[in-house]
Amino acid sequence: MDPFVYNANPGRVVFGPGSINKLPEEIQRLGLKSPLLLSTPQQVDQVEALAKILKSASIEPAGIYSNATMHTPSNVTDEALAFLHSKSADVVVSIGGGSTTGLGKAISVRTGLPHICIPTTYAGSEMTPILGETQDGRKTTRSDPKILPGVVIYDVDLTMTLPSSLSATSGVNAIAHAVEALYAQNKNPIISLLALEGTKSLAESLPEIIQDPSSQSAREKAQYGAWLCGVCLGSSAMALHHKLCHTLGGSFNLPHAETHTIVLPHALSYNAPSIPDAMAKLASALPESDGDATKGLNILLGKLKVKRALKDYGMKEEDIDKAAEIAVSNQYPNPRKVEKGPIRELIRRAWAGEDAR
Ligand code: NAD
């Protein structure tokens, strides 16, 4: 066994159907009483339902801020902070996907307020000490233990409304965290176990969700997998796949989970020659892979009926060269050397929607 360092992130997880009703208990456990509730405009119904649960337990929310936005723009954070200052809250509660979690983190790290996070997608941000923020169209990412939410409540009931297409792409976004954890520079056997269990849970449950979006058992298995994959993201140094998606999302305004979904098989096949052990382990977690992880991913994406081409999301052919240029401009640890020619071909294939080979 190779030597390794294992550094567990702290955090409390409350998991199970209906666990949202334990929010009042969690707030009281921390000795707090005045939560600021956060959501996107699309999840106002869920955040209002949360306010009702709190009120029925005699906890009066300090306020509801429902303008969380993708990629945590700093002007939205400033607006939320101004709202917060007029309300004197003592805890931030975010309910939603990575966008709302991001706003909760941005507020928590600036104010020192504790953050209780209630995820409703599979993005996994709730398990990481990472915050990506956008200012003047530029996204910067930082990591700080203070960014990690202190309590996470996973309630499958809140994911039942997640549209099938977003369930699929968000779930593959989660698998991407696990895939890169398997060959991360700081990989270790504990995180690898979580990565394989998380991948297996998602690879089995996501096709079931596409067949029957109302299946609570499939949704619960997907949420469990997403949690484990989020732990992988929060504990591992991500490589080519995440760096490439960051470049593509930030420079060409491509949607987060959809971009991860398209790029993942291509990034994996790029690295495959350098990671035979990770490829074999991953194949064992992907149904119908016949021992070939790239094939397993291609089959999974086929079952999920997701779009496979970056051009479907508005990326232009002339952007391929620019993307390749940016992708090789920052060096970072990756199992295979990141070289412009092969990276351009990777991006071209993802742009065109060709199968990864
Ligand atoms: P999202 O949070 O932007 O959600 C997408 C849309 O789906 C939103 O309109 C949201 O309100 C809606 N939605 C979410 N859950 C729903 C539900 N259960 N039912 C109905 N609608 C629902 O998308 P995301 O993919 O979860 O997050 C993407 C963002 O998170 C990006 O900005 C990305 O950079 C960030 N992210 C950060 C980390 C990290 O560790 N810092 C990790 C993953 C993602």
List the helices and strands and how they pair.
Elements: E1 12-15, H1 23-29, E2 35-38, H2 44-56, E3 63-65, H3 74-85, E4 91-96, H4 98-111, E5 115-119, E6 130-135, E7 138-143, E8 151-154, H5 164-182, H6 189-211, H7 216-235, H8 240-252, H9 256-271, H10 276-285, H11 293-304, H12 319-329, H13 340-352
Helix pairs in contact: 5-6, 5-7, 5-9, 6-7, 6-10, 8-9, 8-12, 9-11, 9-13, 12-13
Molecular structure report:
- By secondary structure, this protein is α/β, with parallel strands linked by helices.
- The protein has 2 domains: about 10-160, Rossmann fold (3-Layer(aba) Sandwich); about 165-350, Up-down Bundle (Dehydroquinate synthase-like, alpha domain), CATH 1.20.1090.
- About 50% of the residues lie in helices and about 10% in strands.
- The chain is built from 13 helices and 8 strands.
- It has helices at about 25-30, 45-55, 75-85, 100-110, 165-180, 190-210, 215-235, 240-250, 255-270, 275-285, 295-305, 320-330, 340-350; strands at about 10-15, 35-40, 65, 90-95, 115-120, 130-135, 140-145, 150-155.
- The chain has a 6-stranded parallel beta sheet, sandwiched between helices. The protein has a two-stranded antiparallel ribbon with strand order 6-7.
- β4, α4 (about 100-110) and β5 (about 115-120) form a beta-alpha-beta unit.
- α5 (about 165-180) packs parallel to α9, α8 (about 240-250) packs across α12 (about 320-330) and α9 (about 255-270) crosses α13 (about 340-350).
- It is globular, with a radius of gyration of 20 Å.
- Nicotinamide-adenine-dinucleotide binds near residues 40, 100, 130, 159 and 257.
- Nicotinamide-adenine-dinucleotide binds next to α4, β6, α5 and α9.
